[in-house]
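Here is one chain, start to finish.
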Amino acid sequence: MEYSQFYEEYGQPFSGRKLKRLQAFLESMQLSYDQGVEYTVNLVDAQGEIAATGSLQQNVIKCVAVDDRHQGEGLSSRVVTLLMNHAIEQGNSHLFVFTKPKNIAMFSDLGFFPIIQTEDVLFMENVRDGIGRYVRSLQHPKDNGGVIGAAVMNCNPFTNGHRYLVETAASQCELLHLFVLSEDRSAFPAQVRYELVKQGVSDIGNVVLHHTSDYLISSAVFPTYFIKEKTRAEQANCELDLRIFCEYFAKELGITRRFVGTEPFCPVTGAYNRAMKQVLGEYGIEVVEIPRRQLDGVEISASSVRERMKAGDYDAIRRMVPQTTMDFLLSEQGREIAERLRQGR
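Its structure:
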């Protein structure tokens, strides 16, 4: 196919008329525009009509579509190659794609390898056995035959509630693998969250701390553009994340018990915890829900800490977080985060 028949159009991202045209094209392909998109490539024909498109969010390729009239002309390959080149220019050489399972051959031909597949979603990366190598690289103390547990946390920021969950979980296992989400889409940067957790649990001897890297997925990156119904999309996200945990992390690390806090606030997280019991049960992994620690009859949460940061109520915060977190909140960087929260950023 002569790519010269089409001209390339770039958006970082698109807005106005061009965005509306892109949204209409995706709609015609039974897809939705993903609001998280940061960069888009369109291939446009001589009549000014979109023939193919694809987008990037960080290191995730999404919203790839080719007009039915141009199927079999190699346009998807051209779009994905342009997206990969841009990602590499931005310093992202390790790329991922979420797509429909029927597209496995197309992305395999472009150098992507399956990580996990469910009924609704196929998750792939452009590094052969990248996830396997990552999990094998994790610190893995010798198994002495006791219970090996795990917890996955965001800690935005680390509170006395998190500390209570870790203490309780660690008391119920020989070894506790504690994963801190690596994605940088929280008020507190990923490295800050990790360091606050590290400082906050340093005295608990049987805890091993890990980054999640790109593999335990956040709903901020998981694309719902090809699953129209919101509830079904959230269910697909849960299942994908949980099966990755079971197939790779739990198998390699020998995890047989996963700990979560009860979720009285967030319906999405509550649904995730319910799905966890079902999926992990298929793998023989026990799910233990730990009641949240309370202060004056109210559950301690990171969101309530952030609200008090906005209000400048540090006396209240002092009762909700470990001293290591408090020291950070009072630092220059901590006060900068508080100011961004006040400004709604």
